[in-house]
Amino acid sequence: MTAPVTRTRARGVETLSLDATDTRNALSATLVDRLTDALTDCGKDPDVRAVVLTHTGTTFCAGADLRDPPHPDALAGLLRQILELRKPVVARVTGHVRAGGLGLLAACDIAAAATAATFAFTEVRIGVAPAVISLPVIPRADPRALARYYLTGERFDAREAVRVGLVTVTADDVDEALAPVLDGLRRSSPQGLAETKSLLTARVLETFDRDAAELTALSARLFSSAQAREGMTAFLERRDAAWVV
User: Fold this and answer.
1) Which of 4, 65, 141, 148 is an S-S bond match for 26, by CB 3.0 to 4.6 Å?
2) Residue 182 lies in a domain
3) How do residues 211-238 score in pLDDT, each as one tens digit?
């Protein structure tokens, strides 16, 4: 079995790739632990100027692994770690993003997505809510758009993701779009990057710490509910849930 997170480095930029293609890079307990460890290493390493978070396969992240979900506290800890890391974290997305994957995206400082990428908050369709991921998503995205996509689970494209504030830039060639971004980060001082990121994330972290306990408790309660069990079973069995009319 390959590691669920692989690492490479080029000119001070550490690339962390979600590499669990058999589960579409779903957020399993193991993947969350490995990504947390990798980010911790990046934070301690003075040679790392910035972090790129990307993926192998056609899906950036399919959301929580329904067979091995992370504890809500662990997911909240990962999202907070991305926000508070004193180095910029850049998402590079060439595939699809669902549910918890959008939490990772929103926690990153900059996000670039291919024009073919699609996005969806699918939690409502399995009987839960986008609780923990709301900690970075709600402060950074358009509230009217979130009301629609949270409540319906509809898919939307990369241009819409840019419009609503979940993605910074979209392009056919993501690496071409990211080239000036990474060049700018490499030209910036470590101190300047760290303090500027702190300015940008201060209010997000303030609401994060205010609401984290309540939302992790909500997530745990919903995932253990009868409706969630039906929704997850229906998803795994590729059928409509009992409530579909």
Assistant:
1) 65
2) no
3) 999 999 999 999 999 999 999 999 999 9
Angstrom distance (rounded) from CA 131 to CA 129: 5
Q: Let me know: does 28 contact 1? Beta carbons within 8 Å.
A: no
Q: What is the CATH number of the domain that holds 140?
A: 3.90.226.10
**Rounded (10°) CA dihedral 183, 117, 32, 241:** 170
Question: Order of strands across the sheet with 89-93?
Answer: 5-10, 13-18, 50-55, 89-93, 110-114, 169-171
According to the model, what pLDDT value does residue 3 have?
84
Identify the pLDDT of residue 61.
98
Query: Is 87 within the bounds of a domain?
Result: yes
**Residue range(s) defining the domain that contains residue 201:** 1-173+189-245
Contacts of 69 (CB under 8 A, 6+ apart): 27, 28, 29, 223
Mean pLDDT (the chain) is 97
